[in-house]
Amino acid sequence: MSEENDSEKTEEPTHRKLEEAAKRGDVAKSQEISAWFVMLGGAMCIGLMGSSSAGTIMHALKVYLAAPDQIPMDRDHLRAMILHLGATIFGAMAMPLGVLIVAALAGNLVQHAPVFSAENMKPSFSKLSPMKGLERLFGKKSLVNLAKSIVKFVVVGAVVFQIAWPERGRLALMMTWDVSLLLPLVRALALKMFTGVIAVMAIVAGVDYLFERMQWMKKQRMSFQEIKDEYRQSEGDPTVKAKLRQIRAERSRKRMMANVPKATVVIMNPTHYAVALKYEKGMGAPVCVAKGLDAIALKIRAIAEENGVAVVENPPLARALHASVEIDQEIQPDHYKAVAEVIGYVMRLKAKIGGRRRAR
């Protein structure tokens, strides 16, 4: 069966379709949002920890840069020096690196909940196909990503240029400055650049996320046939459900007809309504054991007559009982008097017939 064209997928995706896509790891995601959070984390590191980290590293290197000719070059001293520098630099950079890692995770978490899926890890021969590779390389998505990268480069470059150009005079003299004077300037200039880039990238990231979300929702669209198939899978085939309802109704009707011979009286109208009532001593009120319209009413009457159950024609009472009482329920108090008269009449009639038989 050929795959459906994208033009046929005009319906919005269902909640179930979106959940299944998320389980596969297919979620709306903007790389610019993650990049923005990383830049924000970088700015925080520079602003809050830049001076202390840079001072620690500068102090560790100053000892060796001030008098490099006095550094012992034997193996033990070199190893000790490298270990000391490594531990110092790692200690100074551990906190900033931790902040950047948290920022990178936050950039993903704000877009969607954590998703653990092995779908993308499954081997796929289509990924080895040269044609598929060329399609991914020169496809529409790649061209869109290239255009976005160019726009981002131009925008960020313009912001950096606007911030750095007025400082060109001081930048030219930076090579002649002492390190202790150079670091504060670099920190201030970096913070200024980060602030400008973060402000612009916030807009870029927001627009990019909306674009990626729209593209993802478009990708998840479904055809009308897919929606019907999903409904059948979740709710069941309507044809099968109708057949099951028919079978249940037929079984219920058979059980109802089996109760008609146990009835005390059947009240008719005379062909359209039939209500079979059962009453025995000790019961609070008569109970409806069967009821029906038209063909079912005639069937109830036929079974009642075959089994010697009294049939009484009382159209108003038959209609009222049919509308107010359900099977296996007691009749309403409003109908006690009328039904009592009918059942009393039936009881007297049975007693009279029984007396005649005994007299014979």
What's the SSE blueprint?
Layout lengths: L14 H9 L7 H36 L8 H35 L20 H9 L1 H25 L3 H6 L5 H41 L4 H12 L2 H22 L5 E4 L4 E6 L8 E7 H13 L3 E4 L1 H10 L11 H24 L1
Parallel strand pairs: 1-4
Antiparallel strand pairs: 1-2, 2-3
Helix pairs in contact: 2-3, 2-7, 4-5, 5-7
Structure write-up:
By secondary structure, the protein is mainly alpha-helical. The protein has 2 domains: about 10-235, no CATH class; about 260-360, secretion proteins EscU (name from scop, 3-Layer(aba) Sandwich). The chain is about 65% helix and about 5% strand. The chain has 12 helices and 4 strands; from the N terminus they run H-H-H-H-H-H-H-H-H-E-E-E-H-E-H-H. A 4-stranded mixed beta sheet has the order 3-2-1-4, with helices on both faces. Strand 1 (about 265-270) and strand 2 (about 275-280) form a beta hairpin. The longest helix is centred in the middle third of the chain and has 41 residues, at about 180-220. It is rod-shaped. The model has no long low-confidence stretch (mean pLDDT about 80).
Count the domains: 2
Choose one word for the global shape.
rod-shaped
The pLDDT mean sits at: 80
Number of helices: 12
Largest β-sheet summary: 4 strands, mixed
Would you count the extended β strands for me? 4
Strand-residue fraction? Answer: 5-15%
Radius of gyration: 44 Å
**Residue share in helices?**
55-70%
Roughly how many Å apart are the termini? 83 Å
> Strand arrangement, largest sheet?
3-2-1-4
List the main descriptive attributes of the protein structure presented here:
transport; 4-stranded mixed sheet; 4 strands; 2 domains; 67% helix; 12 helices; mainly alpha; 360 residues
